[in-house]
Amino acid sequence: MNNSTKSSNAGSMGETPSYPSAGYAWYVVVVLYLTYTLSFVDRAIILYLVDPIRADFQINDFQFSLIQGLAFTVFYSIMGIPLGRLADSRSRRGQLAAGIALWCSMTVLCGKASNFWELFFARMGVGIGEACLVPCAYSLIADYFPREKRALPLNVFSGGIMLGSGVANFCGGLVTQFALSGGTREIFLLGHVTPWQLSFVLVGLPGILFVLAMKTIQEPTRKEKSGEADVKATFRYLCRHWATYASIIGGTTFGAMTNGAILGWIVPWFSRRYAWSNAQIGPYLGITIFIFGTAGLSLAGVLANRYISAGKKAVYIKLMMAAEALVLIPITLAHAVDNPYWVLGCVGGVIFFGGFSASLGPASLQTITPNEMRGQVTAFCFLILNLVAGTIGPSAVGWLTTYFFGDDKMVRSSAVIVGFAASVLGLITLALGLRAYERTAEENNPTQ
Known about the structure:
Layout: H1 3-12, H2 22-44, H3 50-57, H4 61-78, H5 80-87, H6 92-110, H7 116-130, H8 133-144, H9 151-158, H10 160-181, E1 185-187, E2 191-193, H11 195-204, H12 207-213, H13 231-240, H14 242-263, H15 266-273, H16 278-309, H17 315-326, H18 328-336, H19 340-368, H20 371-405, H21 411-432, H22 434-444
Antiparallel strand pairs: 1-2
Helix pairs in contact: 2-6, 2-8, 2-9, 2-10, 4-7, 4-20, 5-20, 6-7, 6-8, 6-11, 6-12, 8-20, 9-16, 9-19, 10-11, 10-16, 14-17, 14-19, 14-20, 14-21, 14-22, 16-19, 17-19, 17-21, 18-19, 18-21, 20-21
């Protein structure tokens, strides 16, 4: 009998198995955290290649945004649903190993794209591979930690996207600067690659190590189950609590759109407006993202644990509302000041408050959702999040820059407009669902 069957049977028989040791549980969190970091590096390296790709393929900002956002996001989002269903019933460790192997291979193949459509389809492949990561990882972590200790490890895992963004920017700027400084190179099995293509190859190859790391993770016993994984039961549960899930998923989505609008175009913002090179932008932006992002995620987890332990109600959604309101300040200031270092500080503020929604939204879903539905619900959340924030957000910035302003240097104004509007919508969405969330949380766990 395999691990997943044992886990399923244990949950259905109503057993109360002990949790793994804290040391090993945190080891798993660290491995998943680093894996999340790798995934973001592989998906975000393209941000440093806007101009050379545009030049090679003869495309504009809007067309590039389709490769950057739409190509990756559509399959990343859609495939998350069936893979989330598998995460609720099959080995999550096995899915993760297969997903890592796929997305890293497709990242390397991005380095062989010779036209718009080849790169578009390779980015789709990256999205399919990465689609399994979040549902499997959140489900695993929820089974490694008891409910009252779950917020911090979930937030630490979410911090992988901040480290990934930091590494992608810090190393990405240097990697692309190195790659772009030379001419065409000969790569074993890949043949001749141009400088920008080499960047994809360099960040895709380390995935081999992470596939091997998955072998060190054990499949834990599934806990807090009320039945077997069932798509119809999950659909009925979501419909019964539609206002709650619409609020949490909507608030998380608009928070991600704010971050995506700013960070998705920060490289061309600085290169076009301040004439910064990739080697300048990368380290500064990488350090900013890592420090402010990690601080925001960590503080969100600490505050959530503290208030939940103190018996406060609806902690997750209230902290998210506060962050959505406060983030409007640095977004506005990012446009009001026109000094690159002050702008970096404002971007840090956006990232800091953005960390609350990025971590607390998915964490709240693990609290109000039965175990056998978590993978599917998490995948559904990220389906909506990525379809909206990953496509509409970047494309809206590109559309405003290209067709409304008609000036590449106005990407700053486009990013701020989209980010500000998304934050306001996020705050409204969370406020409208507060009472519904309180009822659902009370039904599932009175302390949340």
